[in-house]
Amino acid sequence: MSTFTALETSIYLLSRRDHGRFELLQKLKSKGYSEGDAEKAVQYCVESNYLNDLRYAQSQVRQHVSKGHGVNRIKQELSFKRVDEELIYRAIESEEVDWFELAKAVAEKKFKGKKASDQKEYAKQVRFLQYRGFDFEQINYALKADD
């Protein structure tokens, strides 16, 4: 274990990028800090507003949107990182994104504006957009024949 305290390590990690509460706790434990020390450090960071799950969720939403991910994928990723469902909802709402247009832009980039030639190709396009986190309405909008 290093000579740094759990708090010093927390502040160092948070100075590099935002982390979620759960993520920071896991990192501290993986670095060999006890559960108690890690919890105290995380709590101090929360109270000092160095660590804020809403701010973290908002930055993650922006990052995912820039990668062309839809709401379902974003929710799944943030849930996996144990961000509170209410905070996920608030973070997504705070980003003013037209999910239909994002899905269309992602489809145009991936498929270079070419419509599916058959059912098999269409199903492949649908699966790609589902994997990216778009719902069926958004996918239908993105792949519809008339622009």
Question: Can I get a quick summary?
Answer:
With 147 residues, this protein is mainly α. The protein has helices spanning 6-16, 21-30, 35-47, 53-66, 71-80, 85-94, 99-111, 119-131, 136-143.
Note down, in words, how this protein is organized:
- This protein is 69% helix and 0% strand.
- The chain contains nine helices and no strands.
- It has helices at 6-16, 21-30, 35-47, 53-66, 71-80, 85-94, 99-111, 119-131, 136-143.
- The radius of gyration is 20 Å and the shape is elongated.
Query: Could you describe the largest sheet, including whether it forms a barrel?
Result: none
Order of helices and strands: HHHHHHHHH
How many β-strand stretches?
Answer: 0
C-alpha Rg (nearest Å):
20 Å
Annotation field: number of helices: 9
Which descriptors would you attach to this protein?
147 residues, mainly alpha, 9 helices, single chain
Layout of strands and helices, then pairs:
Elements: H1 6-16, H2 21-30, H3 35-47, H4 53-66, H5 71-80, H6 85-94, H7 99-111, H8 119-131, H9 136-143
Helix pairs in contact: 1-3, 2-3, 4-6, 5-6, 7-9, 8-9
